[in-house]
Write a structure and sequence with these properties.
This protein is mostly helical. Helix 2 runs antiparallel to helix 3. Helices cover 73% and strands 0% of the residues.
Length: 116
């Protein structure tokens, strides 16, 4: 079994969200409340899984920096750049946590909705 390609996995996730955006954009083909509930739950799952990916990417980046395998074309010290990325990932982790909580709150209400 071949190792999963992380770049392809990220592109596939981005493409899936693009398809979802397209599928929910039509006012002529409305999405019923029960489907909105299910979609919201799936988006909650995405938000729930993002922190692990961000933490692992941050750990991978720090490991490459510790191995001396990062060079900056700006002349900046790699360690400083890695710290900037780490801080940005930390901000993203907080945002993902907020997103997860908000989607869970929405799903809690949507779960009880039925279509007419």
């Amino acid at each position: 079994m071949s190792k999963p390609d992380p770049v392809k996995a990220a592109r596939d996730a981005a493409e899936a969200i693009r398809r979802l955006n397209h599928a929910t954009s039509s006012r002529r083909d409305p999405v019923p409340a029960p489907q909105i509930s299910t979609i919201t739950h799936e988006l909650y799952t995405v938000a729930n899984r993002l922190p692990q990916a961000l933490e692992q990417l941050g750990a991978q980046l720090k490991a490459r920096q510790a191995e001396g395998r990062i060079r900056m074309d700006t002349g900046e010290r790699p360690a400083d750049a890695v710290e900037q990325v780490s801080a940005a990932f930390e901000d993203a982790l907080h945002a993902a946590d907020d997103l997860e909580r908000s989607l869970n709150r929405a799903f809690g209400v949507l779960f009880h909705m039925a279509a007419e």
